[in-house]
Design a protein that fits this description.
With 304 residues, this protein is mainly alpha-helical. 59% of the residues lie in helices and 3% in strands. Strands 1-2 form a two-stranded antiparallel sheet. A hairpin with a 2-residue loop joins strand 1 (286-289) and strand 2 (292-295). The longest helix is centred in the first third of the chain and has 23 residues, at 43-65. It is elongated. The N and C termini lie far apart (84 Å). 25% of the residues are buried.
Length: 304
Amino acid sequence: MDNKKIETINKIYRLAQQDADFGEMLRKKLGANNVVSIDDLSDDRIDEIYEYCIEKIIHRQAEEFYQDFPIKAIVPVLIEDYVRMESFRRKDNFGDFCLSLYQQIEGICNRICSTKTMDEITQKMWGYPAFVESGENITPKLDVRKKKTGGTDYLVAHLIFFKSYAAEKSKKSLQSQGAADKMRIIVYFFGFKAMPTSSDYRSFTEITDLLFDIYQCRNTNHRGNTMTEREKMVLDRVLPMKSLYYFKFLGALAQFVEFVKTGTPYIEEIKKYTDTLIPKEVKPSTTVVGKIKLSEKDLNKKRF
């Protein structure tokens, strides 16, 4: 027997130690009632057994990862995407890894953002301050929101959509928002439970930037796409360090899923709070001159 076959068999044996039921399932996979001679197994057959064993372990890991996930209806699909994601990671297929990982995030976002409750919550809160009061001897509360940040109101819509797009996007339904915006919405309302403090801004930005990187990298396996300058910047930064980003992206997925798990029980409380609010219009933060948008700061500059 060659060394490669012995090495593969040893791998199967080590994997079998992790699963008490593996011996019985292995016999079923071989389709044999009697003991099969190792010498009778082809390299392809051994590889098939090895991959079967690996996939079974990954499937169990996926089930554990989504254990207690509150949106039960989509858990089977999320588990399938997780198994595919890990399979692509083992093969060092970064593009399909990112796609499978992103599909889990996308499925969660679309499900949550299609609910009437979340649409009503967001429509009420766009025009209210993004942060709550904080400081010594101050317990952050939903209804004690920070009025001014840097001398001006900084609204929920500004944090989610950025000021340039806040007025326009806040008029849309939640379901029609873009993918990147939906991810930021989930982080705000589930991760930070709609009451981040000013000191949370950096943490909010770090996780949402990482989720945006995943969003951009999901299409690296597609050919012929014309990339925007921003997409190119992300890929130029990520791809040379993809070994690192495998783990950074997995960490972002784990944090995102944990946000949904821990944030779901608070949505009812947030809904009760927003039921007391009167919707406020989010006004444009720029002045339009022809087709050029100028900020108030730019308008006050001297022109030569």
